[in-house]
């Protein structure tokens, strides 16, 4: 399989304390990998190391076999706080255009690409609105559209639906799953929600807090062979879903 991202014995220390003990993980092209674990186990910091925002204390991060030394336009990062991720004085279309400006895409090509990604996430009719005129779910779609506009090889998502209500969250889960299938996206997705991880992921990585030599950070790496496309009701009632949920639940306990 084509490995997009490789974490090789990556360790993270903050304030003199080991947050993440040496951990290895590969993410393959077209794969959706979810990362779960209790607060403080290093999920977000690991994601930021994968993005090149943070240098690990030990080990190495490579993308397509090349060391990750800093942020790249090949990697898109979707933050949890969509309100701060968007510029309030720019319209939806102009917020999406930020990615194209950074990539120095010629002006003549921008309009068509913006239209295409806004149509993809169901926001074409809202292109001229400002973030304050949109719901939380729609604002998060704008952030996802901006990431899609840069045509990334890898999308890193840090609890992107955590601040949304249950109905909006489920809607965006299905929207994201559709985009991954249709566009062959490669995604690494951090969440506190175990059911969300199982619903979206091809694999789930479970991390534990306060690692020790006997109990390292990487507690489990589990395949999720549930049929695609998934359904909010029938998938969650599947005996395999329930078994995996029970198996993974222990890793969310503090």
From TrEMBL:
This protein's superkingdom? Bacteria
The identity of this protein, by name, is: ABC transporter
Q: Where are the transmembrane segments?
A: none
Q: Which SUPFAM superfamilies match?
A: P-loop containing nucleoside triphosphate hydrolases (SSF52540)
Entries under Gene3D superfamilies matching the protein: P-loop containing nucleotide triphosphate hydrolases
Where does the ABC transporter domain start and stop, copy by copy?
A: 5-234
**What keywords were assigned to this record?**
ATP-binding, Cell membrane, Membrane, Nucleotide-binding, Transport
Recorded GO MF terms: ATP binding; ATP hydrolysis activity
Q: What is the lineage of its organism?
A: Bacteria, Pseudomonadati, Pseudomonadota, Betaproteobacteria, Burkholderiales
Among InterPro entries, the record links this protein to: AAA+_ATPase (IPR003593), ABC_transporter-like_ATP-bd (IPR003439), ABC_transporter-like_CS (IPR017871), ABC_transporter_ATP-bind (IPR050166), P-loop_NTPase (IPR027417)
């Amino acid at each position: 399989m084509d490995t997009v991202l490789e974490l090789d014995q990556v360790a993270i220390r903050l304030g003199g304390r080991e947050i993440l003990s040496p951990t290895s993980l590969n993410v393959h092209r077209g794969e959706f990998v979810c990362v779960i674990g209790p607060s403080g186990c290093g999920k977000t910091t690991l994601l930021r190391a994968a993005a090149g925002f943070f240098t690990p204390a030990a080990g190495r991060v490579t993308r397509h076999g090349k060391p990750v030394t800093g942020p790249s336009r090949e990697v898109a990062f979707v933050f949890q706080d969509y309100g701060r991720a968007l510029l309030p004085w720019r319209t939806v279309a102009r917020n999406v255009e930020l990615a194209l400006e950074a990539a120095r895409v010629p002006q003549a090509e921008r309009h068509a690409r913006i239209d295409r990604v806004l149509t993809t996430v169901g926001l074409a009719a809202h292109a001229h609105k400002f973030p304050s005129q949109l719901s939380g779910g729609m604002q998060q779609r704008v952030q996802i559209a901006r990431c899609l506009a840069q045509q990334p090889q890898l999308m890193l998502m840090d609890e992107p639906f955590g601040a949304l209500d249950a109905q909006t969250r489920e809607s965006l889960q299905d929207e994201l799953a559709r985009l991954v299938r249709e566009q062959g996206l490669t995604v690494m997705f951090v969440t506190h929600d175990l059911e969300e991880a199982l619903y979206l992921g091809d694999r789930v990585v479970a991390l534990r807090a306060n690692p020790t030599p006997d109990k390292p950070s990487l507690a489990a790496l589990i395949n999720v062979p549930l049929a695609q496309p998934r359904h909010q009701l029938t998938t969650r009632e599947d005996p395999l879903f329930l078994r995996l949920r029970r198996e993974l639940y222990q890793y969310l306990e503090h």
